[in-house]
Amino acid sequence: MELALTVQHGQDDQLIFAQQLGADSVVVAVENWDAATLKAARNRVERSQLKLAGLEVCRPPAAGLAEFCEGLGRAGEAGIGLISVDWRAAAAPVQPVGRGKALVAPVPMVAAAPTLETLAQFLTQAGPAARAAGVRLACRAGVGFLREPQQLLELVPALDLDLVEVAGAGKGAEDLIGAAGAKLAMVHANNLRQQQQAFLDEGEISLPRVMQVLVRAGFAGPMRAALPPGMVEDTDWGHKGRAFDLGYLRAILQVIERTGK
Predict the structure, then answer these.
(1) For residue 125, pLDDT beyond 80
(2) 225, pLDDT greater than 80
(3) What are the residue ranges of helices labelled H in the chain?
(4) Count of structural domains within the chain
(5) Which helix (H) or strand (E) is 2 found in, with range?
(6) From CA 252, how far away is CA 201, in angstroms rounded?
(7) Residue 173 pLDDT > 60, yes or no?
Protein backbone atom coordinates (compact mmCIF):
# COMPACT_ATOMS: atom_id res chain seq x y z
CA MET A 1 0.00 0.00 0.00
CA GLU A 2 1.19 3.51 -0.83
CA LEU A 3 0.42 6.50 1.37
CA ALA A 4 -0.31 9.41 -0.93
CA LEU A 5 -1.24 13.08 -0.92
CA THR A 6 -3.49 14.87 -3.37
CA VAL A 7 -1.74 17.96 -4.77
CA GLN A 8 -2.92 20.71 -7.11
CA HIS A 9 -1.22 21.03 -10.46
CA GLY A 10 1.22 23.94 -10.59
CA GLN A 11 1.64 24.17 -6.82
CA ASP A 12 5.24 23.08 -6.44
CA ASP A 13 5.22 23.89 -2.73
CA GLN A 14 2.71 21.10 -2.24
CA LEU A 15 5.05 18.65 -3.99
CA ILE A 16 7.91 19.76 -1.75
CA PHE A 17 5.66 19.37 1.29
CA ALA A 18 4.68 15.84 0.18
CA GLN A 19 8.35 15.01 -0.18
CA GLN A 20 9.13 16.39 3.28
CA LEU A 21 6.33 14.32 4.83
CA GLY A 22 7.64 11.15 3.20
CA ALA A 23 4.62 10.48 1.00
CA ASP A 24 5.06 7.41 -1.19
CA SER A 25 3.22 9.01 -4.11
CA VAL A 26 0.93 11.87 -5.10
CA VAL A 27 -2.31 12.21 -7.00
CA VAL A 28 -2.45 15.42 -9.03
CA ALA A 29 -5.73 17.31 -9.36
CA VAL A 30 -5.98 18.93 -12.81
CA GLU A 31 -8.57 21.07 -14.57
CA ASN A 32 -7.06 21.34 -18.05
CA TRP A 33 -6.50 18.37 -20.35
CA ASP A 34 -4.11 19.86 -22.86
CA ALA A 35 -0.94 17.91 -23.65
CA ALA A 36 1.35 20.54 -22.13
CA THR A 37 -0.48 20.46 -18.77
CA LEU A 38 -0.46 16.67 -18.57
CA LYS A 39 3.22 16.38 -19.45
CA ALA A 40 4.09 19.15 -17.02
CA ALA A 41 2.12 17.42 -14.25
CA ARG A 42 4.14 14.25 -14.67
CA ASN A 43 7.47 16.03 -15.07
CA ARG A 44 7.02 18.18 -11.96
CA VAL A 45 6.22 15.13 -9.86
CA GLU A 46 9.24 13.22 -11.16
CA ARG A 47 11.54 16.21 -10.60
CA SER A 48 10.39 16.21 -6.99
CA GLN A 49 11.52 12.57 -6.77
CA LEU A 50 7.97 11.46 -6.08
CA LYS A 51 5.82 8.85 -7.78
CA LEU A 52 2.78 9.96 -9.77
CA ALA A 53 -0.02 7.61 -8.71
CA GLY A 54 -2.52 9.21 -11.08
CA LEU A 55 -4.75 12.19 -11.79
CA GLU A 56 -7.99 13.30 -10.16
CA VAL A 57 -10.62 15.10 -12.24
CA CYS A 58 -14.21 16.20 -11.83
CA ARG A 59 -16.96 14.46 -13.76
CA PRO A 60 -17.28 16.21 -17.14
CA PRO A 61 -20.63 17.59 -18.32
CA ALA A 62 -22.32 15.61 -21.09
CA ALA A 63 -21.38 18.35 -23.56
CA GLY A 64 -17.71 17.92 -22.69
CA LEU A 65 -17.54 14.13 -22.92
CA ALA A 66 -15.86 14.07 -26.34
CA GLU A 67 -13.18 16.46 -25.08
CA PHE A 68 -12.76 14.30 -21.97
CA CYS A 69 -12.15 11.22 -24.13
CA GLU A 70 -9.56 13.14 -26.13
CA GLY A 71 -7.92 14.06 -22.83
CA LEU A 72 -7.69 10.38 -21.94
CA GLY A 73 -5.69 9.83 -25.10
CA ARG A 74 -3.34 12.67 -24.22
CA ALA A 75 -2.96 11.28 -20.69
CA GLY A 76 -1.91 7.94 -22.13
CA GLU A 77 0.62 9.65 -24.38
CA ALA A 78 2.02 11.47 -21.33
CA GLY A 79 2.54 8.15 -19.53
CA ILE A 80 -0.21 8.66 -16.94
CA GLY A 81 -1.70 5.28 -16.08
CA LEU A 82 -4.58 6.05 -13.68
CA ILE A 83 -7.32 8.67 -13.64
CA SER A 84 -9.98 8.97 -10.94
CA VAL A 85 -13.23 10.71 -11.89
CA ASP A 86 -15.19 12.24 -9.01
CA TRP A 87 -18.88 11.25 -9.22
CA ARG A 88 -19.96 12.38 -5.77
CA ALA A 89 -22.90 14.69 -5.22
CA ALA A 90 -22.12 18.36 -4.63
CA ALA A 91 -21.62 19.25 -0.98
CA ALA A 92 -24.24 21.32 0.82
CA PRO A 93 -23.39 25.01 1.42
CA VAL A 94 -23.68 24.46 5.19
CA GLN A 95 -20.36 24.66 7.07
CA PRO A 96 -20.60 22.65 10.33
CA VAL A 97 -17.85 22.51 12.93
CA GLY A 98 -16.13 19.54 14.53
CA ARG A 99 -13.55 18.92 17.27
CA GLY A 100 -12.07 22.15 18.55
CA LYS A 101 -14.42 24.08 16.22
CA ALA A 102 -12.54 22.82 13.16
CA LEU A 103 -14.45 23.46 9.95
CA VAL A 104 -15.74 20.18 8.54
CA ALA A 105 -17.89 19.09 5.61
CA PRO A 106 -21.41 17.64 5.76
CA VAL A 107 -21.78 14.07 4.51
CA PRO A 108 -24.87 13.44 2.32
CA MET A 109 -26.98 10.59 3.66
CA VAL A 110 -29.50 10.38 0.82
CA ALA A 111 -29.18 9.11 -2.71
CA ALA A 112 -28.50 11.93 -5.13
CA ALA A 113 -28.00 12.43 -8.85
CA PRO A 114 -26.18 11.40 -10.96
CA THR A 115 -27.60 7.91 -11.40
CA LEU A 116 -26.08 4.60 -12.42
CA GLU A 117 -27.67 5.12 -15.84
CA THR A 118 -25.80 8.40 -16.21
CA LEU A 119 -22.57 6.69 -15.21
CA ALA A 120 -23.23 3.89 -17.70
CA GLN A 121 -23.75 6.40 -20.50
CA PHE A 122 -20.48 8.10 -19.58
CA LEU A 123 -18.58 4.82 -19.58
CA THR A 124 -20.01 3.83 -22.95
CA GLN A 125 -17.68 6.41 -24.49
CA ALA A 126 -15.05 6.99 -21.82
CA GLY A 127 -14.42 3.30 -21.13
CA PRO A 128 -13.24 2.39 -24.66
CA ALA A 129 -11.27 5.64 -24.92
CA ALA A 130 -9.43 4.84 -21.67
CA ARG A 131 -8.63 1.29 -22.76
CA ALA A 132 -7.33 2.52 -26.12
CA ALA A 133 -5.11 5.03 -24.31
CA GLY A 134 -3.80 2.46 -21.84
CA VAL A 135 -5.30 4.43 -18.94
CA ARG A 136 -7.07 2.87 -15.98
CA LEU A 137 -10.31 4.77 -15.34
CA ALA A 138 -11.53 4.78 -11.74
CA CYS A 139 -14.78 6.10 -10.29
CA ARG A 140 -14.94 7.94 -6.96
CA ALA A 141 -18.54 7.11 -6.17
CA GLY A 142 -21.02 8.88 -3.93
CA VAL A 143 -23.66 7.62 -1.52
CA GLY A 144 -26.28 7.09 -4.23
CA PHE A 145 -24.02 4.74 -6.20
CA LEU A 146 -22.68 2.87 -3.18
CA ARG A 147 -26.16 1.85 -2.05
CA GLU A 148 -26.06 -0.51 -5.04
CA PRO A 149 -22.44 -1.72 -4.67
CA GLN A 150 -22.77 -4.86 -6.77
CA GLN A 151 -24.24 -2.96 -9.71
CA LEU A 152 -21.56 -0.29 -9.34
CA LEU A 153 -18.72 -2.84 -9.31
CA GLU A 154 -20.13 -4.60 -12.37
CA LEU A 155 -20.24 -1.28 -14.21
CA VAL A 156 -17.00 0.55 -13.43
CA PRO A 157 -13.54 -0.45 -14.73
CA ALA A 158 -12.00 0.50 -11.36
CA LEU A 159 -13.08 2.00 -8.04
CA ASP A 160 -11.70 4.91 -6.02
CA LEU A 161 -13.18 3.98 -2.64
CA ASP A 162 -14.29 6.87 -0.40
CA LEU A 163 -14.72 5.57 3.16
CA VAL A 164 -17.12 8.30 4.29
CA GLU A 165 -19.35 7.83 1.25
CA VAL A 166 -19.42 4.09 1.98
CA ALA A 167 -20.47 4.75 5.58
CA GLY A 168 -23.05 7.27 4.41
CA ALA A 169 -24.56 4.59 2.18
CA GLY A 170 -24.87 2.29 5.20
CA LYS A 171 -22.32 -0.21 3.87
CA GLY A 172 -19.24 -1.76 5.46
CA ALA A 173 -15.90 -0.75 3.95
CA GLU A 174 -14.36 -4.11 4.78
CA ASP A 175 -17.02 -6.03 2.83
CA LEU A 176 -16.76 -3.67 -0.12
CA ILE A 177 -12.97 -4.02 -0.22
CA GLY A 178 -13.37 -7.77 -0.49
CA ALA A 179 -16.05 -7.48 -3.16
CA ALA A 180 -14.03 -4.99 -5.23
CA GLY A 181 -10.95 -7.20 -5.39
CA ALA A 182 -8.66 -6.21 -8.26
CA LYS A 183 -11.02 -3.36 -9.23
CA LEU A 184 -9.96 -1.38 -6.16
CA ALA A 185 -7.60 1.27 -7.55
CA MET A 186 -7.42 3.90 -4.79
CA VAL A 187 -8.81 4.55 -1.31
CA HIS A 188 -9.81 7.85 0.28
CA ALA A 189 -9.16 7.79 4.02
CA ASN A 190 -11.61 9.93 5.97
CA ASN A 191 -14.02 9.65 8.88
CA LEU A 192 -17.43 10.89 9.96
CA ARG A 193 -19.40 11.50 13.13
CA GLN A 194 -23.07 12.45 13.30
CA GLN A 195 -23.33 12.81 9.52
CA GLN A 196 -20.42 15.19 9.18
CA GLN A 197 -16.69 14.98 8.53
CA ALA A 198 -14.41 14.13 11.44
CA PHE A 199 -10.67 13.84 12.05
CA LEU A 200 -9.17 10.50 11.05
CA ASP A 201 -8.61 9.41 14.65
CA GLU A 202 -12.23 9.86 15.72
CA GLY A 203 -15.63 8.98 14.35
CA GLU A 204 -17.47 5.88 13.25
CA ILE A 205 -14.85 4.39 10.90
CA SER A 206 -11.96 2.42 12.35
CA LEU A 207 -9.02 3.32 10.11
CA PRO A 208 -6.77 0.69 11.76
CA ARG A 209 -9.31 -2.05 10.97
CA VAL A 210 -9.84 -0.84 7.39
CA MET A 211 -6.09 -0.69 6.78
CA GLN A 212 -5.65 -4.19 8.21
CA VAL A 213 -8.21 -5.47 5.70
CA LEU A 214 -6.46 -3.63 2.86
CA VAL A 215 -3.07 -5.09 3.79
CA ARG A 216 -4.48 -8.62 4.08
CA ALA A 217 -6.20 -8.19 0.72
CA GLY A 218 -2.84 -7.33 -0.83
CA PHE A 219 -3.91 -3.82 -1.84
CA ALA A 220 -0.89 -2.09 -3.39
CA GLY A 221 -2.46 1.14 -4.62
CA PRO A 222 -2.50 4.63 -3.07
CA MET A 223 -4.41 5.44 0.09
CA ARG A 224 -4.85 9.18 0.52
CA ALA A 225 -6.71 11.30 3.01
CA ALA A 226 -9.53 13.49 1.75
CA LEU A 227 -9.42 17.28 2.23
CA PRO A 228 -8.85 17.61 6.00
CA PRO A 229 -10.93 19.65 8.44
CA GLY A 230 -10.07 23.34 8.52
CA MET A 231 -7.63 23.96 11.37
CA VAL A 232 -6.42 27.15 13.03
CA GLU A 233 -4.19 29.24 10.73
CA ASP A 234 -4.07 26.49 8.11
CA THR A 235 -3.98 27.04 4.35
CA ASP A 236 -6.85 26.42 1.96
CA TRP A 237 -5.08 23.26 0.81
CA GLY A 238 -4.68 22.15 4.44
CA HIS A 239 -0.94 21.80 5.08
CA LYS A 240 -1.40 21.21 8.82
CA GLY A 241 -4.33 18.86 8.38
CA ARG A 242 -2.59 16.81 5.71
CA ALA A 243 0.53 16.48 7.86
CA PHE A 244 -1.62 15.12 10.70
CA ASP A 245 -3.45 12.73 8.37
CA LEU A 246 -0.34 11.32 6.70
CA GLY A 247 1.42 10.90 10.05
CA TYR A 248 -1.59 9.09 11.52
CA LEU A 249 -1.89 6.73 8.54
CA ARG A 250 1.87 6.08 8.54
CA ALA A 251 1.80 5.16 12.24
CA ILE A 252 -1.06 2.70 11.69
CA LEU A 253 0.67 1.11 8.72
CA GLN A 254 3.95 0.74 10.61
CA VAL A 255 2.18 -1.02 13.49
CA ILE A 256 0.44 -3.40 11.07
CA GLU A 257 3.70 -4.16 9.27
CA ARG A 258 5.68 -4.71 12.47
CA THR A 259 3.12 -6.81 14.31
CA GLY A 260 1.64 -8.62 11.32
CA LYS A 261 -1.86 -7.74 12.58
Answers:
(1) yes
(2) yes
(3) 12-21, 35-47, 65-77, 116-133, 143-146, 149-155, 163-168, 173-180, 207-216, 239-259
(4) 1
(5) strand 2-8
(6) 11
(7) yes
Rounded Cα distance, 44 and 141, in Å? 28
* Bridge partners for 192 per DSSP: 197
CA angle 187, 190, 191 (to 5 degrees): 135
Residue 28's nearest CA partner among 4, 14, 9 is 9
Assess if residue 100 is contained within a domain: no
Q: Is residue 95 part of a domain?
A: no
Domain presence at residue 75:
yes
User: Does some domain include residue 42?
Assistant: yes
CATH number assigned to the domain comprising residue 167: 3.20.20.150
Q: Which amino acid is at 52?
A: L
Structural domain harbouring 231:
2-90+109-188+207-259
Length of the chain: 261
- Band (pLDDT 50/70/90 cuts) for residue 91 is low
- HSE-CB at 169 with a 13 A cutoff on CA atoms is 24
